[in-house]
Specification:
150 residues; alpha+beta; D-Maltodextrin-Binding Protein, domain 2; 2 domains; 4 helices; elongated
């Protein structure tokens, strides 16, 4: 629709994370294929396919299927389970910044990255844009930028 404007609020990267205890038990993986033997944690979806799709050096792509030890709709529960050593988890980097800094979680296969999520705001053209909507979009853009910088 030509009367709509789309603005990027955030470019949200994900990574795979595990607890130091799980890495001590499983070893440090050197390739995505090794992850199929790791215990995984999964966000519930309508599909019953549990996989990590990863993109690596020189445009390489890997798909890792796993049997989850835990499935939930709660991303905070996934983070807590990963910290407890229950399994490997894919989460937004912003969600685990404190745990990474504290050494409670470690990024796994850092050169391989799940697809990035771009968060957009879509609203009517600026001509009819209410000041409150503009203020909200500006606030969200600034807050996401602040979270990335911290």
């Amino acid at each position: 629709d030509s009367d709509l404007v789309m603005r990027v609020l955030a470019d949200r990267g994900h990574r795979l994370f595990a607890s130091p205890d799980l890495i001590a038990r499983m070893g440090i993986p050197s390739a995505p294929a090794e992850l199929s033997h790791w215990p995984g944690l999964s966000l519930a979806s309508g599909k019953h396919i549990h996989r990590w799709e990863l993109y690596g050096p020189q445009g390489a792509r890997a798909e890792v299927h796993f049997t989850p030890r835990m499935i939930t709709t709660d991303m905070l529960a996934l983070r807590e389970a990963a910290m407890a050593g229950v399994g490997l988890v894919q989460l937004p980097v912003l969600m685990v910044k404190e745990q990474l800094a504290a050494g409670e979680l470690v990024a796994v296969l850092e050169e391989w990255e799940p697809r990035r999520e771009v968060i957009h705001a879509v609203f009517p053209s600026r001509r009819g844009l209410l000041p409150s909507v503009r203020a909200l979009v500006d606030f969200l853009t600034e807050e996401y930028a602040r979270m990335v910088e911290e």
